[in-house]
Amino acid sequence: MDENLANDLAEFPALLEAVRESATDMLTGIESRPVARAPEALGREELPEHGVGLARALARFREDWEPRFSGSAGPRYFGFVTGGATPASVAGDWLTGVLDQNAMSGEDSAAIELERQTVDWIARMFGLDRHTGAFVSGATMSNFVGLAIAREWLGERIGISVADSGVGALGPVPVLSGTPHSSIFKSLSMLGIGRDSVRSVPTLPGREAVDVDRLAEALAALDGRPAIVVANAGTVNTVDFDDIRAIAALRERFPFWLHVDGAFGAFAALSPEHAELVDGLGEADSVCIDLHKWLNVPYDAGVQFSRHRDLQLRVFLNSAAYLSAPTGTPDFGHLVPENSRRLRALTAWFSLTAYGRAGHRDIVRRNISGANSLAGQITASGLLRLVAPVRLNVACFTLADRPTAERVTALADAIAESGETFVTPTVYEGQHALRAAFSNWRTTDADVERAAKAITAAALTLD
Ligand SMILES: *Cc1c(COP(=O)(O)O)cnc(C)c1O
């Protein structure tokens, strides 16, 4: 055995203790760490021929790399939609690595039973108990898998299996959607359906939610040709929600597969005052839910839900002589793109076991309240205004005076430089704007005030 490896084996418990101490140190410092870091170009080092052992690797990481990492797991990071990691989920993540299970098949471990149990809990949180669920790496993969099953369903309508014959046999596929996330286009590209297949359906006036009447017209114009409809719940700019129940009802008149991208918006289901935003979710053929955003588990985890396991199995079946053929409940390796798989469910299992539905509902409600409070505080100065009402957990705002691209970018930079908070730019209805997205369990009222002060102060520095 390599000398460093042998030493590390002998010292393993003490070394883990040192790692734990470092982790504690990083976690207690997370509130004082600058929220974001401007990346700088770094030179590349040679691959070490001989290593230095874990203790010195840890020291090197802490000196060279850790200080350059952002405080995105902390309470005042509002960029993109970036959840943190609850204490229990961090523990689950550590143990995932320690136990290093392969959650592909259930022949040698209960690991996949734990995944099934966790998927079942998540299904119940969102009213998806009639769906089959599987862990994937995030919402992009969840959208990809949902649309892959949709593609197989379209083939079945015309008597072919796309899984066997290829996407060429399918011809052009109409994909109808109001305000789809960028990952829908990426998924369609990966699936051979193509980004250009998306037919944009008009949204309601002043909204990002699709106009269901216009969707019905677009479906009628297909003359009975099957389609894919992607409903959005909610959108990233203004967290607007399509009327899922009304869209699902259109299936009585038109043949289409309904995929709902509920990456983070589906968590509205946890808040009684907002649950109606995702009413009808259980009617969807496939549903995407991200977990590393609003469930607050570490990257990377999302769940894919579908109501057509037979078609899913056709797409993702991985048959080989040494693998048992799927009978009964198929192994996860036959339901998703990955074969060998990390036991991603363990982080969610820990967090749901430790905090339950109520604990996670509390995170969602506090974040919604935080977004509303921030919106109130930053607009009170008169320097900033909202470009859309706060519907859930995002405040989308811009400068009251001359919100040009340059000035809004300068504002974003000034906010980031403060180290106090971090927001990301967008363009909404042609207006340059910034989004503050709340999805971190640690965020308190005091954090919201601190962030609001930093944003207002940054706005004051612009000429
Ligand atoms: C974040 C997001 C995605 C993509 O999620 P990843 O986890 O980054 O792959 C897809 N859809 C929506 C609505 C999102 O917010």
From TrEMBL:
<comment type="similarity">
    <text>Belongs to the group II decarboxylase family.</text>
</comment>
<dbReference type="Pfam" id="PF00282">
    <property type="entry name" value="Pyridoxal_deC"/>
</dbReference>
<dbReference type="InterPro" id="IPR010977">
    <property type="entry name" value="Aromatic_deC"/>
</dbReference>
<dbReference type="InterPro" id="IPR002129">
    <property type="entry name" value="PyrdxlP-dep_de-COase"/>
</dbReference>
<dbReference type="InterPro" id="IPR015424">
    <property type="entry name" value="PyrdxlP-dep_Trfase"/>
</dbReference>
<keyword id="KW-0456">Lyase</keyword>
<keyword id="KW-0210">Decarboxylase</keyword>
<dbReference type="GO" id="GO:0006520">
    <property type="term" value="P:amino acid metabolic process"/>
</dbReference>
<dbReference type="GO" id="GO:0019752">
    <property type="term" value="P:carboxylic acid metabolic process"/>
</dbReference>
<dbReference type="InterPro" id="IPR015421">
    <property type="entry name" value="PyrdxlP-dep_Trfase_major"/>
</dbReference>
<keyword id="KW-0663">Pyridoxal phosphate</keyword>
<feature type="modified residue" description="N6-(pyridoxal phosphate)lysine">
    <location>
        <position position="293"/>
    </location>
</feature>
<dbReference type="GO" id="GO:0004058">
    <property type="term" value="F:aromatic-L-amino-acid decarboxylase activity"/>
</dbReference>
<dbReference type="InterPro" id="IPR015422">
    <property type="entry name" value="PyrdxlP-dep_Trfase_small"/>
</dbReference>
<dbReference type="GO" id="GO:0030170">
    <property type="term" value="F:pyridoxal phosphate binding"/>
</dbReference>
<protein>
    <submittedName>
        <fullName>Glutamate/tyrosine decarboxylase-like PLP-dependent enzyme</fullName>
    </submittedName>
</protein>
<dbReference type="InterPro" id="IPR021115">
    <property type="entry name" value="Pyridoxal-P_BS"/>
</dbReference>
